[in-house]
Amino acid sequence: LQEHKCVLDSCRYLENEGFKVTYLPVQKNGIIDLKKLEEAITEKTSIVSVMFVNNEIGVIQPIKEIGALCRAKRVQFHTDAAQAVGKVPVNVNDMNIDLMSISGHKVYGPKGVGALYVRRRPRVRIEAQMSGGGQERGLRSGTVPTPLVVGLGKACQICKEEMQMDYEHVSRLAKRLIDKVSSNVEQIIRNGDPEKTYPGCVNLSFAYVEGESLLMALKDVALSSGSACTSASLEPSYVLRAIGTDEDLAHSSIRFGLGRFTTEAEVDYTATKCIKEALRLREMSPLWEMVQEGIDLKSIQWTQH
Amino acid sequence: MATITRLAWLGLYKDLQRASSEFKQFGYREFAKRRVREYFELNRKETDQQKLAALYQKGQETLKVIHRQAAIGDLFPASKLIIEQPTPAH
């Protein structure tokens, strides 16, 4: 259960249509358990969908292994690679990917364009999203917006050429941010697997600090407490809950996005401000005071039901 | 094929850096400067004349791209980022 909101909602729609959808849990580090996946695939399974890189905590799923498993079981494999393309190496043939979603603005391309990779052999049969002139073998009818399409292609080309440089830059920034924040504030937890992660997405939990308050305090920096795609609710991120983060920690998490155009100076500014505000908010927090006094918060019964 | 002199390379580097400084937007400016430097460092030890010629060509084209993009950026008002502003006294 660690998909993007839009995939989850599509699944819900399919369930209404009468399809059976199995949602798989993930391990503590945010990575899917291959054994559980294997058990979940039945004879009737038609498609497996796994997110390549998670948009909230940045963990990278073992796509190659999942692809091999799906191929062996003759199940089609869809991956939402919007966060992966242009940032980590992706090869649809090596990884046995049958369907792959790509988004334009995530590869520094134009907004409002995306792509779906559809494997021709073995053939993937898909229903057209809309009907019309029957372009592209009847799969996607209508005229494409040329500037957006060219923009997407060029953006992908640049990403491919400069992937190594971008990756190194982003890793450097992520390390700088995490080191700086965690060396100055205690009880910082990084959500997600520390190794198998795309460094451009850093999700930190500031224990005993309410995430939304911290965001308010950091209003001159563009950050989020979850993903923009789920910002309709103030509930803690379902991604964090899926990896077993405690409710209180899930409420206190902040997601930092780093990219090609982020600079050291910006990271330093953000880190400094974060440290200052987190310490200030803790200073005001009664919870923090209780923790300092040695009270275990989990032992307290807050409400009487 | 004539080799490209050290002076020409230095000229290209300086031109690229100067052009990059034209970007009004902080992020693009810093990115362009950094990326130019990274490309030069990456190919510092390149000795293949043909590849060097191709790189020089690419540099010239990039220079045009930077000039053009910076000019396009000038068409729209850009506000300074919080980190560019002089820090107010707290």
Give an account of the 3D structure.
The complex is a heterodimer of chains A (305) and B (90). Chain A is of the alpha/beta class. Chain A has helices at residues 5-17, 34-40, 63-73, 146-184, 211-217, 238-242, 247-251, 264-284, 286-292; strands at 47-51, 76-80, 99-103, 114-118, 188-190, 201-206, 253-257. In chain A, the strands form 2 sheets. Chain A has a 4-stranded mixed sheet with strand order 1-2-3-4, covered by helices on one side. In chain A, helix 4 (146-184) packs across helix 8 (264-284). The longest helix of chain A is centred in the middle third of the chain and has 39 residues, at 146-184. Chain A is globular. Chain B is an all-alpha fold. Chain B has one domain (12-77). Chain B contains 3 helices and no strands. Chain B has helices at 6-20, 26-42, 49-75. Chain B is elongated. The model of chain B has no long low-confidence stretch (mean pLDDT 88). The chains are: A alpha/beta (305), B mainly alpha (90). Chain A binds chain B through residues 162, 165, 169, 220-221, 260-263, 265-266, 269, and chain B through 26-28, 30-31, 34-35, 38, 42, 81-83.
